[in-house]
Write a structure and sequence with these properties.
heterodimer; A: mainly beta; 6-stranded mixed β-sheet; globular; B: about 120 residues
Chain lengths: ~110, ~120
């Protein structure tokens, strides 16, 4: 079993839909990271959180340390949100989920 | 300010040759990380540096891989006697400090193709 599991692997949505991507992990962590990888390959850090909830624009990330689970939500999804979303945990030797490929259709 | 830069952006090499990949972190960032992403696969941790401390090499896949960093600046990842399975995008990231509680800023990557 991988140390970081993401679901779903692939997700197709219509513009405007509410999106949820899930991440479960089995290792102890100091923080969990959500990353976005654009079709061209560039990676951007979206959130880093160790408890509770963070919001940035239409993006919301939550984490439950006791349950070792995090969710990334996208409200009012838009085609420009199409990307691979990656969950990562750990300290310096980060462990990455396989990613969720999101496609938002207009 | 300038982000993390990597060079070259693309590298094609013949099997058995050595390659050097370069990473310039964000100024002031003491931690630097190397990752590998094979085609269609997830990111893999390779090595990280924190200041002048000994690097954590636990992710390096074989002794053909090595990395150096000069102080808190440039890092080079060297792959000796390249193999076809080394083909991947090699990503560098830097953060203010090491530890999972600091945001990492990623470079654009070097796409390595071993023929």
């Amino acid at each position: 079993k991988n140390e970081v599991e993401q679901s779903p692997q692939n997700l197709t949505a219509q513009e405007g839909e509410f999106i949820t991507i899930n991440c479960s992990y089995s290792v102890g962590i100091s923080a969990l990271h959500w990353l976005q990888q654009h079709p061209g390959g560039g990676i951007v850090s979206l959130f880093m959180l160790s408890s509770g909830k963070k919001k940035h624009g239409r993006l919301i990330a939550t984490i439950n340390i006791q349950e070792k689970h995090s969710s990334l939500h996208i409200t009012a999804s838009h085609p420009r949100d199409s990307a691979v979303y990656i969950c990562a945990v750990g300290n310096n030797d980060m462990r990455f989920g396989a990613g969720t490929r999101l496609t938002v259709k207009p | 300010g300038a982000g993390v830069s990597q060079s070259p952006s693309n590298k094609v090499t013949e099997k058995g040759k050595d390659v050097e990949l370069r990473c310039d972190p964000i100024s002031g960032h003491t931690a630097l990380y190397w990752y590998r992403q094979r085609l269609g696969q997830g990111l893999e941790f390779l090595i990280y540096f924190q200041g002048n401390s000994a690097p954590d090499k636990s992710g390096l896949p074989s002794d053909r891989f090595s990395a150096e960093r000069t102080g808190e600046s440039v890092s080079t990842l060297t792959i000796q006697r390249t193999q076809q399975e080394d083909s991947a995008v090699y990503l560098c990231a830097s953060s203010y400090r090491s530890g999972g509680s600091y945001e990492q800023y990623f470079g654009p990557g070097t796409r390595l193709t071993v023929t």
